[in-house]
Write the structure tokens for this entry.
Amino acid sequence: MERKRLCLDITEYCFLALHCKGGLKWKRKRTVRIMNYYISDVHLFHKNVTDEGSNFDNRPFKTLEEMHETIKTNWNNTVTNADHVYILGDLSWKENEDVISFVSKLKGNKHLIVGNHDRVKDQRYKQLFAEVCDYKEVKDKINGKEYNVVLSH
């Protein structure tokens, strides 16, 4: 059985056309709203945002491992693969195998607005993002009202 998805309005309903021996059958299905999320200064792999270092952000983590596990769990329990996450700079302190592995496990379409700590030279890291830019303007809706949003670090 081949399934084709025809979305008439992503925020309301989608119809699934089920191609089967008896012809087309339509099934109405409620869809999940695609969300935009905004976050900044995650500082992955930067020990000075935990008690292992100076904890300049006063974060409640004793270790980087604890912080990373909490971020990954909370992120993936909130964000779906259809959602967009705008990261407004300073995602990580380093750009290495550990960061590439960690970011690849985070759900969503990630858009990186580069901050002063971001290094995006490794193509394997860069490909984890829908886009990488210094500045971006987007439109977003809150309670049905549309807003122009300027994104920068």
Confidence is low (pLDDT under 50) at residues 1-26.
